[in-house]
Write a structure and sequence with these properties.
Chain lengths: 221, 384
């Protein structure tokens, strides 16, 4: 391939299906990572809520995981879970979401006012009903804020999984753009990842607005 | 009826119990106010009724049923609960807040909706305007009303109120107190009401339980009895040096026996008036009234010498007129502020009913509570 033009539009048009496929893979890897990460983090947050003494140890471990460079983590996992393995990718991706999500979920629950909890108990909610119908809705804005950061971070990290042989937009950047010195592919992959991150972020904002109509209403006068 | 039988609460790691060996019975339909300084265990006592706090020993029964024998959530759904910070659910509308307990009890949607409308009307919040609002859009007083409506939603026979009007300004508090008393007269709940404010206790209570350190019951009686006969130095100190004045605000002018005045009508012969004043009456003044028995003023015995009839010009004005509905405290204040310290009590048509003197009031304060002059000596209706 030649690089006489900076952006080869004809390539983009020709490879539209391939680009769409890579985008789909990217979305899938991201959604999987954030969903699993959220499930684990939510469970951890509930444990911390029950036993506050575990707060520092859990966040400490999550912090260490977060500090491992992503490339290093993939490399370390390969002997155990293999190359070109979604498992390898997800273990690493999920690990990175946990610090952010646990911290936000715990903060969200901690922000539920004490008088509201007391009223909920006094009304006769069971602990489970109180969690789902009172605490979770009130904690939601802070939890969604965590999901936004975790998702945007994950979208970026998924590009790295191309290095262990997975698809996603990273494939365009690494396997086509870098390997063949083809700038157009790198550009498409990069802009795609950025666009995906922004779209996900806006999606969460819309979701939060839809789920928390009460947070917008303030007394006027 | 809510009964505490030798109830003790100890918190782990604290030597002194929060509540010690408390025995107390709140009769059905009455407001019992728990009052005491901080650390007296009043909130702990209240929260043991719906088991937000569980007693270490002793028994609490509601209409004979031990509260520990019911599942806690079931018990709580049957007891109304109002707290100072209100604790409305910020993510639910006013209607959904009020509907919480009925929904927990799985009422049908129609029944819930009707009940919400009824309750909002009851607490003076127009359903059309307030139903769909969120707590953040309400004023402090409005929130407190929603809190009361929410507590009453499933029509509990027992209500627990923890300083319910403590967080609003004095003017709104007064209004909320009056509204609640009006509601209570209609609904007759058994209410356990916690406050640290003696005046609020006197105003709201059918009976006041004064707690001192560690939930020791210092005195449990009507406001009148506590104010006139404090059981200990602690109670006397706690209710304050102005307990006489506080007691006066419990009664209305119409509740106590008034002095019968010597009446002299305009146009009556002087000799006749003299004869009546000179008889058994130990007073030098007669009250001059017009043909409709409306007071004109006082006439001294000296002015009645001679012949002819009594004219209106003889009247010495200056006595305040009082209404039977005024509290004794207001009456005293009116009388002290006028030149003649005798109040002429008149009925709705302005006719003289009797005379109230400062002496009568001080006599009343010396008398034991529940003495014959009290037509009804308990219950909010007799005071308002």
């Amino acid at each position: 391939m030649t690089d006489d033009a900076l952006v080869r539009w004809d390539w983009i048009v020709r490879e539209l299906d391939e680009i769409a496929r890579r985008l789909g893979e990217h979305v899938l890897l991201t959604v999987l990572a954030v969903a699993i990460g959220f499930g684990i983090s939510f469970a951890l947050a509930l444990v911390i809520r029950r036993r506050p003494i575990l707060h520092s140890p859990v966040l400490g471990v999550a912090g260490v995981l977060y500090a491992i460079p992503s490339l290093a983590l993939f490399a370390l996992l390969i002997p155990f879970t293999g190359v070109q393995s979604v498992l390898t990718a997800e273990i690493a991706l999920v690990s990175y979401t946990i610090l952010i999500l646990v911290r936000n979920i715990v903060t969200g629950f901690a922000g539920v006012p004490q008088d509201v909890l007391e009223a909920a108990d006094g009304m006769g909610y069971t602990p489970w009903q109180r969690l789902w119908r009172v605490e979770l809705p009130i904690a939601l804005p802070v939890i969604v804020a965590g999901l936004r950061i975790a998702t945007v971070t994950t979208v970026g990290l998924v590009t790295v999984t191309a290095l262990i042989g997975l698809g996603g937009l990273g494939y365009l950047i690494v396997n086509i753009g870098l390997a063949r010195f083809f700038f157009t592919a790198t550009l498409v992959g990069t802009l795609g990842a950025i666009g995906l991150a922004i779209a996900a972020d806006l999606g969460f904002v819309a979701l939060e607005r839809a789920l928390t109509p009460w947070a917008r209403s303030r007394r006027t006068g | 009826m809510v009964a505490f039988e030798r109830v003790t609460k100890r918190y782990a790691g604290v030597d002194e119990p929060a509540v010690r060996d408390l025995t107390l019975t709140v009769p059905s339909g009455e407001i019992c106010v728990l009052v005491g300084p901080s650390g007296s265990g009043k909130t702990t006592t209240m929260k043991m009724v719906n088991r937000l706090i569980e007693p270490t020993s002793g028994r609490i029964t509601i209409d004979g049923t031990d509260v520990m024998r019911l599942p806690a959530v079931e018990l709580r759904r049957r007891i109304g609960y109002v707290i100072q910070q209100v604790g409305l659910f910020p993510h639910l509308t006013v209607a959904d807040n009020v509907a919480v307990v009925p929904r927990l009890l799985r009422w049908s949607p129609e029944r819930v909706r009707d009940r919400v409308e009824e309750l909002l009307e009851l607490v003076g919040l127009e359903p059309g305007r307030y139903r769909g609002r969120y707590p953040a859009e309400l004023s402090g007083g409005e929130r407190q009303r929603v809190g009361v409506a929410r507590a009453m939603a499933a029509d509990p026979s027992v209500m627990l109120m923890d300083e319910p009007f403590g967080a609003v300004d004095p003017i709104r508090r007064e209004r909320l107190q009056n509204e609640f008393l009006r509601l209570q007269r209609r609904l007759g709940k058994t209410v356990i009401f916690v406050t640290h404010d003696v005046d609020e206790a006197i105003k709201m209570a059918d009976r006041i339980a004064i707690l001192q350190r560690s939930g020791v019951l210092a005195q449990y009686d009507t406001a009148d009895a506590i104010l006139s006969r404090p059981a200990s130095d602690f109670v006397e100190h706690f209710i304050g040096a102005d307990r006489g004045l506080k007691r006066l605000s419990l009664r209305r002018v119409g509740d106590i026996s008034l002095l019968p005045p010597v009446l002299v009508r305009v146009g009556e012969p002087r000799a006749e008036a003299r004869r009546r004043l000179g008889g058994g009456a130990p007073v030098d003044f007669a009250l001059l009234v017009d043909a409709a028995e409306r007071p004109l003023g006082w006439v001294h015995r000296r002015e009645l010498d001679g012949d002819g009839s009594v004219g209106p010009e003889l009247a010495i004005p200056g006595s305040p007129t009082l209404e039977p509905e005024s509290t004794l405290r207001d009456a005293l204040s009116t009388m002290l502020g006028s030149s003649v310290q005798l109040g002429v009590v008149v009925d709705g048509g302005g006719r003289v009913v009797g005379i109230l003197s400062v002496d009568t009031l001080s006599e009343y304060l010396r008398a034991p509570p529940g003495a014959p002059e009290g037509s009804a000596n308990r219950g909010p209706e007799s005071r308002r």
